[in-house]
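Follow-up to my earlier ticket, as requested here are the two runs.
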Amino acid sequence: MAEEAPYAGRMATRNDAAPGGARLEVTVTDPPRGIDLSLEVRPGRTLALLGPNGAGKSTVLRTVAGLHAPGRARVVVGDTVLSDVGNGGRAFWSPPRKRAVGLLDQQPDLFGHLTVRGNVMFGPRAAGASRRAARTFADHLLDAVGARDLARRRARALSGGQAQRVALARALAASPRVLLLDEPLAAVDAPSARELREVLRRVLDGVTAVVVTHDVADVRALADDVAVLEGGRVVEHGPADELLAAPRSAFLKDLLEHDDGADDLGPVPHAAPSEDGRRSVARHAEAVEALVAPALAAGEPQVVRVTELLARAAGEAVLAPRVLARDARAVVGLPGFDNSQMDGYAVRAADLAAATPDAPAALPVGAPVPAGSQPSPLPPGTAAPVMTGAPLPDGADAVVRVEDADPPTFSPSDVVRFAAPVPPGTYVRRAGSDVAPGGVVVPARTPLGPSQLGALVAAGVPEVVVAPVPHVLLVSTGSELVPAGEPLGAAQVHDANGATLAAALAQAGARVSTRVVPDAPDALRAVLDDAPADVALVVTTGGVSAGAYEVVRQTLREVWFGHVAVQPGGPQGLGTVSLGSRRVPLVAFPGNPVSAYVSFELFLRPVLARATGAVPARRPTGRARLAEPLDSPAALHQVRRGVLDDAGRVRLVGGPGSHLVSHLAAAGVLVHVPPGVARLERGDDVDYWEIR
């Protein structure tokens, strides 16, 4: 029997076979393309096919998939011949639909009118599987590629990375014996590529696969073997680790020479732009985190008394965000002594060993043990009434609930009867079973919330070491701006950005100093020169676009300024500025109020909240149906404002304009429309973040 792909959960109608994949042999001679080569992929291994453009990589994949018929070709999968032409004898060419070969291209090419689940079900249904079986299998595969939450979304509403995950699940749904991947990560942004690469790393384990790529990160993560093609010939072929360590071909040497060796898994401080010059939202968020997070962690930890934290919370009716910089260790164990988990009778288990309903154990009642008392030892053959949380008398090793005794309530009776034995330890909380003295009661990097403070008090911890509270200098730029509370002059407006972001920064755990400066470089330089000595981060609003009075951009020449593929909030700046002898990170947001706030939520708040312990570090997310249609620029990640109505649907608040501050104030969620989506209809699903 021919080998089958070893996917867990493949269609029950398929015959199972031992894992390990199928051997692939391919020979291609295509004179018009100058190709003459032979390759073999051993069962269950992944071959990375490398080479310059025009070397023949895609021709090999298309020949294996049955989409190209060269002059001479032989393709064998396991013991099944798929192609044999131009070799003498009777020619044979199996059509693509019968090859059990999966192909994942650069572009997902999903059925846009179908849901995600419908796309993945399509292959099994076409093969005759029942709707129920196909749905179960599709959900299993969507789980495997991390896309189960997208099942009900229409394919046309997916981002590039999401669509490629679904395309991978759809390719797997046909239970292919060989999986072909033609630069599957080339059309997605870097964060999505990293995630997808990890998905592929898992999915390809034990699967026979060929991956065409120009990225060394793909080779390191996915490939067991490497073949390098040049001029239609195989010039290098062998185990991936050996060839990467000692490349022989000029192409592979050059590829490795220009690789940074980072496996594309780390943050990108200055992320590369997309083809239209814009950074993706994810790439810019990465760049902000890479620059800002180390600076926020560089301050000196602070020692604070637990009682001070409690007093401030009670006095100000707010629990200030704090995150532990070091483990907090228990001074006393929890529990501090053996105690009762129930209201009942403390007993020696041996005294009840022979108890039965027909011959209950009758024990005299000893002195009661209320909580907060120190009991006398329990004599053998005695039962002592004990309350929940009260110490267990010495000698007792179990508790019987009062409702399981006779009488089933505490009473003046001198004797209590038990109809069944109990194992030692029943309803007993042992000393130190939660945490022993000296043990870690709250680990480092934990935000201090109500439950953490309660545990610290219970464990007798007097003080803790917390991460420093970052001091942020917030600078609003614009000659038209007037600080809050001051009268307006002609053509002036109040500084909404300063108010909004100062509150947002404080809510995220920062200490904030605010400044308002006109569109004059000397004024901005003076504010920076006069910044408080402990400022860890500078945030500016306005002055980052391409106009004539863009003071931040014109003054800070060493800072990166560019566009992010987001609406609102496209113009952004990121870099470092000099504050005296120090250089600190600067994050520059656009000046329109909604743009500034959305930029803060997308790029800065998650980094700041993780550093301070603000909860939640990431906004709560959800997915709901739209109550109305919306249009969105297809090239941008649009962030609209909305609320959840009584039916749990997302209803938009205001339009996409970046000046609509009253509509922002009315919103309870930020609605995310990913790139590649130009329109969503009423009833379509959308993702949202809760912002209050």
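Run two:
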Amino acid sequence: MISGISKKVIFFSFLFINFIQPSKSAELAKINKNINNQNAELHLSNNYIREILSINPKISDDDNSYIALFTKNLDSFSVAKAEKHQELIIQSDKQSEINDVIYAEGNVSVSFGGKLLRADNLIYDKLNKKINASGNIVFVLGDQLFKVSQLEYSFISEKGYLLDVKGSINTNNLIDNLSSNFSLSDSAKLESLIELKKKEVINTPNKVQNWLFYTDIMTIDGENWKSKKAIFSNDLLESKQVKLEINALEVFPVDEKTLRFRSSLNYLILEEKISIPFWAGTRNFDFDKFQTANRWNLGYENLDKDGYFIGRKFNSIDITDDFVLYLEPQFLIQRSLNGYTKSFVNKGESITSERVKRNASFEDYFALKSQLKGRINNWNLEIDKNLNSFDLDKFSDAFRFKTKFNKEINFLDTKWDKSFYGIYRERVWNGSLGEAEIYSGYGSKLQKENNWIVNGIEKKESLSLGLANITAEAFNTKNLITNLKGTFFYSIDQKFPIRTQKPENKSIDISYRYIPQPVTKGLSLKTKLEASYSFYENGQHQEYIGLGIGPELILGNFKDKTLDYTRLSFFPFYKLNSGKSAFKFDHNYEKFTLKIAFDQQLFGPVILKSFGTLDLTNDSDDYSEFIDSKISLNWKKRSYEFGIFYQPHNQAGGISFELFGFR
């Protein structure tokens, strides 16, 4: 018995010993002989702790917490030290070593370089530095989880393979996880991730970050990971609705911040029945912006292309490691059938003149759409070009160009989007004033957007500041004028619940076949406050304050097959205008408008969506007419939405496709 010594003295004494003498569990095998020798004299086992604590018979069963704490500190310190020295630590129920080969069985846990692996059985050849694991393998790298039936890897050749791979990856922090250490606290995830497919998920609006991943075999060769065929699905509940079949997949790093992947012909598979081929080529590993559209594109554009056209996307072209070029040649079907075009002005006339009917040559039957995307340091660069005829005599009238150079910055303790841009012949639709032309321009913009909820009231705030030099169509004439323009804009949207029925929770299960999140039913009131001020180099200015308020009614759950969802919205908006713009494209004209939206489920996933803006300005030539409108027929499912749309106001239409994200 040790009389007069309190439990606290014993506790802090051995806590001090624990920190100055790094310990090793009896079941740990460190594959580093030098460090083994260094730690041999400092070895302190868990049994030794129990033996010392047993010296004081006054220690009761309640003091087992001390022992547990000691054990936890010892093991944690060992693993943390191993992470620092890039050691391999093996824990298991049973272990033996024969001729420098370690055999581990039962609840095998391996930690190396901050990564964690668990398996039923493991063999490690210390001389050849080769590891072989089998049986219920789970490999964890931060938020990335892989379940494998067999794993083999050589630390010398840096080659290996994984069999029957099933994974859950998060593309938002994939690169960080591949290079960062595994936290000891993350090991608890393994206990709750027995199955990759979840029973309930929550929608992540406007982004897809989490994917289920399947492949029969994944080979590793240095920093390159390859698979003949891999399946990705954004639906964490099941993969029957939509999945991506990626063939000849190869993932490799470009630098410390960027991964790229290469593939051949791939398929977007809907409902396990419809396969749409697409080509991804080689690009940055960015599934958030992954385009899964068909290589063939059927669209309608009357003003620039005289009606229906068909396009086919080429394979993406790597200009450099940081820049990718996308090309889509188009054949203008309706222009070729008509034999004439109404998309151009007479030869030699101003670009703002009225379009006239002209005979179409063979070169007029073709168009080209291209996009160049890449990064320069921390800046994103995007260049979009459209050529609506290959007739060189019409080049200046047929060519449209827009570029944007932007990045996120910190300003006034908040995040802003800072951008520079340049444009050549951009079309702008300005309500009842119709289409206006910006001939050329360049400028800079600083903007931010915030979203939050207070006491059930949804709020969205936007703020932007801009300065640009613009050559565009004048407000009162067809002449082109050049002016420096400065702009300040602010808006706040709010949605007040009047009598609504919110779902009990935000999660959904497999019973939600048609929607990615539960419906909030009932009556709400939307409001909008908007303020804008613009000034021009010639001394002109214009400003307005806009106020809007209107109801939104939502009925149904969108779970039954017939007429189980309706959304109806009316939003009157009134502007107090003063001043006038130097240009047509941005002049504040309408004082009073009414926005109407109507969505209706018809049968199953088929939903009709419509939107329109009605001009109610008394002195407007378009009084009581729709100055902005869109109608679409959509096939809406839990994990994706496909639609065909038409915009009567600018005589354009096309096909839309969207994937929904979950966590």
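The only thing I checked on run two: The radius of gyration is 32 Å. Let me know what else you need.
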